[in-house]
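Look over what follows to help learners.
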Amino acid sequence: MKKILSLALVLCMVFALCAVSASADEDITAADVPDTMTSADGTYEIAFVTDVGQLKDKSFNEGTYNGVKLFAAKNDLSYKYYQPANGDQATDDDRFDAMKAAADAGAKAIVCAGFMQGTALAKAAEAYPDVKFVFIDGWAFDGLDNIAAVAFQEEQCGFLAGYAAVMEGFTELGFCGGGGGENPAVNRYGYGYVQGAEAAASVKDVNVNINYTFLYGATFSPSNELQTLASGWYETGTEVIFSCGGSIFDSIAAAASANDAAVIGVDTDQSAQSETVITSALKGIGEAAFQALEAAYGDNWADWGGKCTVLGAAENAVGLPVDTWSLENWTVEEYAEMLESIISGDLEIDADYENLDSTDHVNLNVVA
């Protein structure tokens, strides 16, 4: 039970289980490490290439980079982040150019965030065979052993978020996803959310309505259009929206605040960003980056390179932040019991988001 209840601490970037050099400050956290530094010789050994959106998105980019810069700081290595040119309109060439700039500046390991990096990453890995690449939310490439991909079972923490919302008493739910419906990780989050809502609604014998959309979230950026859409939902009865797309959180949290409504965060614990957040669907993106970099600098790269490592509840890599949630009608003990059932395999959650549809207790309103 203690192991289960410590999940939130693990996922909130404590990284207490990560080995570091003996000379490093064992108590340092990501918050202690600045986003930028200047190396003495102008080279940077560890690099991070952002996904679309902002570095400080309080979610996917920022969470991943926290692991990157923490590893660098704890091991006395220089580090730098690179944002592909053209922002939300970045092309594969823009992403490759960012990776090339990192490699040419001396990077021995480059962490790339987001599934959109795939084409550029394969090209960069071929062009720089001596550089080790980490592909967060990615997949393996045949013949490219210098790429370590990491993927997550987002459907599991999405399920927990949907279950928690309905057990808390909400029956009018919303989901706003990033990536325009083309991002597999976001799609798994959303499908898990619907499954969790169905499971809780079945227990309580209630009916649940879910507004579900990827409108205005394709670029993972806040917008007036998205805030207007979310406000419209809240004004017509939606009680809580799962904000699943990096910086789109800003628009949804603003709408929730204006309507005295609730938000579920994503990727990292977003409770500190807004009082509207009741919980967040977490995945250990920063910790995964940290551990993959450990492998890059250690003797177990063979366990990571050339393959995709999939992490879920069994690896303490997904869950909800029990220390900061504001739930009152679903207890930490009940959460821990459900999490254990996922870990044991007694509770199986479907990851095939092509099956997304209304269920016995959930009416799904897809807004295209």
The CA atoms of residues 178 and 245 lie 4 Å apart. Residues 1-24 have pLDDT under 50 and may be disordered. The radius of gyration is 20 Å. The first strand starts at residue 46 and ends at 49.
